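The data are set out underneath:

___
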Amino acid sequence: MEYEGVPVAGTQQWAAYLAIYGPSTNPMHRNSLFPRQQVAVDKAFLTKEAAEEGALAVAETLLQSKTAPG
């Protein structure tokens, strides 16, 4: 899993980005389960750290919904 804060062009704000990868038989290849994209698009973050926390929260929600029983 990779999550990061990315500066928003022309502003002092940050966007949250997330990518989730699964296991692969080839060590030179990553199996993309959730391609890198902006998440929490309805939120503007004031710091890089806050954007990273926002991306991590989305990742946790996605992973919990994928592993929930039923």
The CA atoms of residues 58 and 64 lie 10 Å apart. The chain has one helix and three strands.
